[in-house]
Sequence to fold (271 residues):
Amino acid sequence: MPPTVQDVADWWATAVSRVEPDVIELRGRPVQEIIGGMSFVAVIWLLLRGEPPTPAQEKLLEVALVSSVDHGPHAPSIAVARIAATCGIGLNNAVASAVNTLGDVHGGAGEQCMRMLAEVAARAETGEPVERAASSVVAKWRARSRYLPGYGHRFHTVDPRRDPLLRHVEEAVADGTVAGGYLRAAVAVEQILATGRARPVPINVDGCTAVIYGELGFAPPLARGLFVLSRSVGILAHAWEETGQGRRNKGPIPPSITPTYLPGSGHALET
Fold:
């Protein structure tokens, strides 16, 4: 039997939006009520979760999104955006080029940290002391890689975003907005990493936002998706700024500096 019109309609069945002549609804809510009635952050929650957030949930999501918008041209995504903007392409292409660099290494730590903290929190929920759960999970993750997602920073001794973000989570726990399992797990991991070290390894912005997204009930892959939404703001701002500076074909280093030549090696220098 050939496909029917209904078969085609069902192929694209969605609960996210309804768009028909003279009708636009987002999760069943008329767009004319949403415009001016909900913040952008609340709409993000609505589309991802199906229901609008409470004011306290909206506030906590907002601080996480704000914290990750930019980290300067040292961040590969920002550098790529600025380079791409000088190559004769549009802003959308520059933004897309930059977003496409956000992978497991750059941009994925939040998702990875959220998965790690979820393991700690789940074990703690069974009655295991959170410190012991954290120690076991950290050992397992360290067996895979010497890098622990969400902790430490190559620039900051203490990430300046750590304290305000965790303070907002603590307030949300105190008023009953979130349960606090991810926060307790994150602090326990941080304490383990500080043991026996002259210089601690504090939680960074990826870890803090992982705590927030976990406390708010988002699935781990959305930690990366939400980071992409957040970082896109900085990407756009840098790409736009670069278009006004008059450079063409901007490379990663000034033309006066030439890369180190490694004759016959083909291997990069150790860093």
